[in-house]
Amino acid sequence: MKISNYNIIKKYGDEILVYNSFSKSSLFLDKNSDTAAFENIEAFKKLSKKEQKILIDNGFVIDDNRDEFSEIKYIYQQKYFETNFFNIVLVPSLSCNFKCPYCCEKDYTCGKQNIKKYFSGLKNYAAKNFHLHNVVQISLFGGEPLLYVKECLEFLDWVKQDAEKYGYQYFTSVVTNGSLLTEENFTDLLNHNLYSLQITIDSDKTNHDSMRIFKNGEKTFDLLIEKINKLIPISKDYEKFKFVLRINLNNTTVDKVKTTLECIEKENRKYVHLLIRAIYNTHAYNEKNSNNVNALKEYFDLGMQLGFPVLKEKYNYQTCEACADRKFFYLMPDLSIWKCINDIGYENCKIGNLTDSGEVELIPENIVDWYNSCMSAFSDPECIKCKLLPDCLGGCPLHKCKNHKKSCRTFDMACLPFIY
User: Fold this and answer.
1) Measuring CA to CA, which residue among 89, 67, 5, 6 is closest to residue 414?
2) b/e per residue, 113-139, with b = 16+ CB within 10 A?
3) Angle between helix 183-190 and helix 221-235 axes, rounded to 10 deg
4) Distance between CA atoms of 274 and 11, rounded to whole angstroms?
5) How far is C-alpha 79 from the chain's CA centre?
6) How many CB atoms are closer than 10 A to CB 308?
7) Residue 315 pLDDT > 60, yes or no?
8) Burial, 76: exposed, middle or buried (Cβ in 10 Å; 0-12, 13-18, 19+)?
9) Selection from 113, 23, 26 nearest residue 68 by Cα
10) How big is the chain by its Cα radius of gyration, in Å?
11) C-alpha dist (Å) from residue 105 to 119, 200, 229
């Protein structure tokens, strides 16, 4: 037997966290505990048989013939080229009824908007391609996607018929500011196999109402809290659905975030999955933020104490929680195809275009550049030795494409959700 290369030991207050980034197993130990058995095979051999079994069963200690690095690389590449699963993110418009100052899309239009042409080209593409996969995930994004909820639902109605005809499964997800959600359109989305709907609150009421506001300056915090509490009961019977509440941390504190979370009625909290992130700077926003991605645990702990589940990272062994690395792309308003839209000014993320007839015209050099960025962790000496490799995988592909260097993910951002 030998010690896994991916055992991570961190101290949190009166506890020691031992986490394995490959197996996703975690143990909390008393602060005075001896952790030598997680780092030294001779110390492991001195443990009782029962204790040894726990470490072996959870991947902290492995067989001598295991090559964890090769296994990670194999799993990653398998997922990257998987074809049974397909994810398309629909961005019919970059228009939005909010004017959030940090929006990475606010300075761009990405071509002339034509909703009728967009859904016509999309339908032609779907008719030729969706049935080639076992599972199709359709994500609604924007802009604010519910500005065009009628057109989105009409397309999903067509997909439902196509899926029944050809025997594939389809699922949907939505990232929305929440202002246009109604009982009717929420129920319609749920009936299209909605597995995730995400709404964002910025820290606390004061912060939120200074940032996430309507274009006319009207505040939105009370409106969104009311909608969340009203809509959650509708979704309780949909077992596969997750209501995701993203909490943006922006010069805030645990106590301030607590006032927000306490606005969610107690009986609703177990149905609301928390995704917590610090607001980061982009080309469109550059402000100091006392919050960062190295200090998320106290916010996760707060959520758990109040009865909220923490959203588990669903993209295991992939470089990014958004672009996912699978057979995945964003379909933009002008029918261009992108791998990432966090910086629409960087056109190397565009990998092709969709014609009106639903044919794909690819840009091979951009596809290869993106692939090389995603795979670079397996040739980078620092990444190869890093204990966070299975959860980070070299960090953001967009950053690597633009800057030709990696941007490592922190433990709290990459690994921490797995312990809850």
Assistant:
1) 6
2) beeeebbebbbbbbeeebeebeebbbb
3) 40
4) 23
5) 16
6) 22
7) no
8) buried
9) 23
10) 22
11) 21, 16, 29
pTM for this predicted structure: 0.92
For 349-358, give one letter per residue: b (16+ CB within 10 A) or e: bbbbbbeeeb
Tokens 């994500």 correspond to what residue? 139
- Taking only the tens place, the pLDDT of each residue in 68-96 is 999 999 999 988 888 888 999 999 999 99
Q: Which long-range contacts (CB under 8 A, 24 or more apart) does 106-113 make?
A: 106/284, 107/283, 107/284, 107/345, 108/344, 108/345, 109/333, 110/332, 110/333, 110/334, 110/336, 110/344, 111/332, 111/333, 111/334, 111/336, 112/333, 112/334, 113/333, 113/334
142, 106 contact by CB (below 8 A): no
Mean pLDDT within 50-65: 97
Domains of the chain: 2-66 (no CATH), 85-305 (3.20.20.70)
